Amino acid sequence: MGIIKAAINAVTGALADTWLEVIESSPMGKNDVIVPGQAVDQRGRSQNKKGGENLVSNGSIIHVLDNQMMILVDGGKIVDYSATPGYFKVENSSLPSMFNGQLKENIKESFSRIKYAGISSTSQRVFFINLQEIRDLQFGTQNPVQYFDEFYEAELFMRLHGTFSVKITDPFKFYMEVIPKEVITNNESYAFNRQNMQQFFDEFVAALSAAFNQYSADGNRISHITSKGPQMAKYMQDVLDADWTELRGLEIVRVAMQNPAYDDASQKIVTERSKMASQVSYLKDAANQQAFMAKSVGEGISAAGSNAGGAAVGFMGMNMAQNMGAGVMGGYMQNPQYAQQPQQAPQAQQQPPQAPQQGGWTCECGAVNSGKFCTECGKPKPEAPKKRFCTNCGAELNPNAKFCPECGSKQ
Q1: Which of 57, 303, 342, 390 could form a disulfide with 395 if both were Cys (CB 3.0 to 4.6 A apart)?
Q2: CA 305 – CA 205 distance, rounded (Å)
Q3: CB burial class (10 A; 0-12, 13-18, 19+) of residue 15?
Q4: Residues 155, 273: contact at Cβ < 8 Å?
Q5: What span, in angstroms and rounded, lies between the C-alpha atoms of 56 and 70?
């Protein structure tokens, strides 16, 4: 038994008048991988039930839709197939025609190996295999997965979840290795879901850990994984190639990762490192550096007055912090990772003068005193300069003034 290509006008015209069967696929859901054929009504007439449901007689027409592969089973053998959309007539005297369609020549070898295999049966049936991408298959890791992120320089632990999609690339391998035989004998549909394919979901999650490690070894940041669907799919294909593609005729098409759920310790690392990286990025700019240091100095001066040890102690502490901050900034700027902009020549840090207490005086050595002699160097308290007055108008003059600022007379 085989199939031959049928003209469309034969189906729409003379075929209906001769009361022959027309077989199409049963409704094929988005996750269905195989469905049985069913007889369709012709011009409003009742369905032809003479051969029983999905039993094909000689001369029947089989209608194949896009992204479907039809297989013709006779006595437990796959005797012919078509992956080409169109109408095909069943001829008992015909040899297998093997319309490869979108699968090209790749499946001929598989067909030659399994065409005499199958179930024990005396019926002739038609089944349709779904060649579309089967999407929205959800996955999740029960235990945290370990990942070393070079950006954070830490081992992170997280639970992964998302969706993936698969595609049947060799329908014969898939039919023989995955489809239960009772599906054919009972004339049933079969879907790719957890109830039917739990082992596949378990294998996917196990392979995900290996693909995840390769993603890390290639130096990728974990925060970019949501945009790496095609890359993760390639990793998964490499890991599952032997078990899924070569043995079962199935491959991973795409993996859509959602944001990973970090454990508490990993979340703390990510938050702290991200905050630090944001500050370093801000301080790469010279203007931002100056603004940051000016803000720090202003806050230090404001806090110095309220220091419990006195303003002088407050200023001393502020000077130490300012010098340390300048050293840290210099270290960042010398690091090639952050030295992206030319740096201005460092300016000399001006030390703010120590504030004398009420009634005190500041010595030339910088010490603040309240007595008549400096407690550090012993110098006497300088006398206040004598006041000078204009000999003409009596206005007070600066100590070194040569002319009066009020009347202009020479002094």
Answers
A1: 390
A2: 62
A3: buried
A4: no
A5: 13
CB neighbour class for 16 (10 Å; exposed up to 12, middle 13-18, buried from 19): middle
Nearest of 113, 86, 103 to residue 171 by alpha carbon: 103
Element (H, E) at 64: strand 61-64
The string over 266-278, giving b where at least 16 C-beta atoms fall within 10 Å of a residue's C-beta and e elsewhere, is beebbeeeeeeee
C-alpha distances out from residue 138 to 129, 198, 352, Å? 22, 12, 65
H helix or E strand, kind and range, residue 326: helix 311-334
State how far the Cα of 59 lies from the Cα of 86, in Å rounded to an integer: 16
Query: Could you report the per-residue pLDDT of 240-251, keeping only the tens digit for each?
Result: 877 898 889 999
Single-letter residue type at 66 = D
Query: Among residues 83, 80, 91, which one has the least CA distance to residue 67?
Result: 83
Q: C-alpha angle 110/206/222, rounded to 5°?
A: 120
pLDDT at residue number 26: 92
* Sole residue written with tokens 């999740």: 140
4: nearest Cα among 99, 130, 85: 99
Query: What amino acid is encoded at 326 in this protein?
Result: A
Regarding pTM above 0.85, the answer is no
User: Mind listing the pLDDT tens digit for each residue in 388-406?
Assistant: 888 888 788 887 778 888 8
Task: Return the pLDDT at 409.
Answer: 81
Q: Has residue 351 got a pLDDT over 80?
A: no
Q: What is the pLDDT of residue 219?
A: 83
Beta-strand pair 2-5/86-91: antiparallel
- Say which residue the tokens 């015909």 belong to: 94
Q: What is the pLDDT of residues 46-62, one digit of tens each?
A: 444 443 467 787 788 89
> Which sign, positive or negative, has the C-alpha torsion 206, 211, 215, 216?
positive
C-alpha to C-alpha distance for 132 and 269, rounded to whole angstroms: 43
Beta bridge partners of 4: 89
Q: Which amino acid is at 121?
A: S
Q: Do residues 47 and 40 make contact, with C-beta atoms less than 8 angstroms apart?
A: yes
